[in-house]
Amino acid sequence: MSSDRILNFAIRFGFLILLAGLVLYFSVFANGFASPRSAVFILQSVAITGILALGVTCTLVVDGFDLSIGSVATSALMLSAYAMVVLELSAGMAILMCLLMGAGVGLVNGLLIVKFKVPDLLATLGMMFLLIGLQRIPTQGNSIATGMALPDGSTAEGSFSPAFLWFGRERLDLVLENLLPVPVVVFLVIAVAIWVFLDFTRHGRLMYAIGSNQKAAALVGAPVSRNKIAAYMISGVMASIGGILLAARLGRGDIASGTNLLLDSVAAALIGFAVLGAARPNAFGTAIGALFVGILLQGLTMMNAPYYTQDFVKGAVLVIALVFTFYLSSRRGAGAG
Question: Is 149 inside any structural domain?
């Protein structure tokens, strides 16, 4: 009985203990890590990744997976830049175009998976490659900035609206004086909204039921197709919001930005399985997973760890998190049986 209690404790709190140990280690050995400014920088670095990861979480809930989130985010970055710099549209119109684009991509992904029976990994992988190519066509693969030469020989005379840049660069006087960036506030609001939606609304519970047993959910009358499509549309919108915030922070349409968005977001969503022994996709765990990735990268950077070791460390942590989730949970289930 004592061993069962130890096992249950390890499953439920092991990852949080690992997170606390990581914070303690970096606080001792990385000079300046424990400062408020470092904490704010960590939150800022994980905000965009966390928003994308929350979108992935919604697809994982319905037993799906979205590989197109990184390309949707970079497409939103390029689209917003093109709308304001080349087409000289307002910030509001640029944001609306990006949100509609994200929802449209999610709708197409959902229809491919639900109506045309394309496996989710293949459908979203195909969409990823399509968007990577599509976002480069209008500028022939060049980044977008004021004064750039356009393919027709003209010059882009528009610029990023100050109202748009506010979302990526402004710091609010909330908890720490003039230190809390707007993207962090957006991330926290979205995280709470997704958590409430998945855990406390009828549609969220239906999504979990579909992910757990799709056939059983269909037999009791649940709108399976509609909810699965909705999950991919939410994922697309979340990715487009991440792209908007990234564009607002950079102030240009950088074609090379967002390279690691997909991998970091997926890692955060999967690490979330291990938080509090949930063993399932959940918004709270995903937010903690994104924070974990940010703390890890910030600590390694402040300790001058070579950049090429960071992906290895992230992979190792992900494997450990999945062991916490699945191997230990299977042992608990075997013991109960």
Answer: yes
Q: What tens digit of pLDDT does each residue of 226-260 get? A: 999 999 999 999 999 999 999 999 999 988 887 78
Q: What is the pLDDT of residues 21-59, one digit of tens each?
A: 999 999 999 988 988 888 888 998 899 999 999 999 999
What domain range includes position 120? Answer: 56-182+227-259
Cα-based torsion angle of the residue sequence 214, 216, 220, 225 in order, rounded to the nearest 10 degrees: 10
Cα separation, 202 vs 259, whole angstroms: 36
Q: Which amino acid is at 148?
A: M
* Residue 268 falls inside a structural domain: no
The angle formed by the CA atoms of residues 8, 65 and 290, to the nearest 5 degrees, is 55
pLDDT at 329: 64
Please state, in angstroms and rounded to a whole number, the distance separating the CA atoms of residues 180 and 189.
13
Residue closest to 232 by CA, chosen among 85, 76, 97, 111: 111
* 199 part of a folded domain: no
Q: Which amino acid is at 239?
A: A
- Alpha carbon distance 59, 234 (integer Å): 8
- CA 74 remoteness from chain centre: 13
Rounded to the nearest 5 degrees, what angle is found at the Cα of 296, between the Cα atoms of 129 and 167? 60
Question: Is residue 153 exposed (0-12), middle (13-18) or buried (19+ Cβ within 10 Å)?
Answer: exposed
**Cβ atoms 144, 156 nearer than 8 A:** yes
On whether the pTM is more than 0.70, the answer is yes
106: burial class by Cβ within 10 Å (0-12, 13-18, 19+)?
A: buried
Cβ atoms of 244 and 167 closer than 8 Å? yes
Nearest to 302 by CA among 60, 26, 24, 44: 26
For the CA atoms of 282, 285, 289, 291, the dihedral, rounded to the nearest 10 degrees, stands at 120
C-alpha 197/C-alpha 212 separation (Å) is 17
The answer to whether the beta carbons of residues 177 and 260 sit under 8 Å apart is: no
As given in the structure block, the two tokens for residue 245 are 């915030």
d(CA 301, CA 18): 19
Total count of domains within the chain: 1
Evaluate whether residue 287 is within a structural domain.
no
